[in-house]
Design brief:
alpha+beta, globular, 4-stranded antiparallel β-sheet, 6-stranded antiparallel β-sheet, 253 residues, 25% strand
């Protein structure tokens, strides 16, 4: 997540500008709690331009190798265990696996490492996920007690912490607002064609931003914070993929 200070500081700066422009009415929440259930939530995200990577849960290293072959290489494998919530600290994530043998070996190694770290650890299985290449963007929506719901957009990874290069607007965010947010970023050229590298899929990024805005507005009685970090923006025409989605529910759910 982003430091609270960045959110607050940028929010105050842009709030005045937003008030001068006028804020569109949000309308009443139109979603249902059922849509937020685990089995429906990924589908709801996809309907709003926030498609998650292809993934599968596997019970064993052998099963992980089978699922990886089905999904297509390269893949990421993450260990699934209540004792491995901070997966990177216990070596529970392995990136860039290129074949079934590498997947099997990585899963076995991660399981062994976790058991050494915590002999009582319960390993529930392995999450196998397609490895997505692209430009990392962070998108977040949250409810500010004073100003109401707003969206933050910036470049993901270390860039957002180092550069403080983020744009913030009050919801709702439409196509024009989303484009304006992207153009206001100092790193905006990262989305354009550069030294033979194709331009990023800005249409897909804008669709993800407006979709996130609508999803949050429709379900805001159950959500306080929804963050996509990173959204991987692929080359033009190839879409964008919501690699990691973090949700904070209201107590009411």
């Amino acid at each position: 997540g982003l430091p609270e200070t960045v959110r607050a500081m940028q929010g105050l700066v842009h709030y005045a500008a937003t008030l001068r422009r006028g804020v569109a009415a949000m309308g009443a929440p139109a979603g249902s709690a059922e849509q937020l259930d685990d089995k429906h939530f990924d589908g709801l995200l996809a309907l709003h331009g926030l498609t998650k990577p292809s993934s599968a849960l596997a019970a064993s290293p052998d099963a992980a190798a089978v699922e990886a072959t089905r999904i297509g290489f390269p893949v990421v494998v993450k260990i699934v265990s209540p004792q491995a919530s901070h997966k990177t600290e216990v070596g529970g994530v392995t990136l860039g696996l290129r074949n079934a043998a590498e997947v099997r070996a990585a899963a076995e190694t991660m399981a062994r490492r976790l058991t050494v770290h915590d002999p009582s650890a319960r390993i529930e299985g392995f999450l196998v996920q397609e490895m997505v290449d692209g430009t990392e963007v962070i998108l977040g929506v949250r409810e500010d007690p004073q100003f109401g719901p707003f969206m933050l957009a910036g470049f993901g990874g270390v860039l957002v912490e180092v550069m403080r290069d983020v744009a913030i607007r009050l919801l709702p965010v439409d196509d024009n607002t989303a484009l304006g947010m992207l153009r206001s970023l100092r790193g905006a050229p990262l989305l354009e064609q550069f030294r033979g590298r194709p331009a990023r899929d800005i249409d897909a990024l804008v669709a993800a931003m407006t979709g996130l805005s609508k999803l949050f507005i429709d379900h805001r009685q159950w959500l306080t914070d929804l963050e996509i970090n990173p959204l991987m923006v692929r080359p033009q025409g190839k879409g964008a993929v919501a690699v990691d989605v973090r949700v904070i529910w209201r107590d009411a759910k």
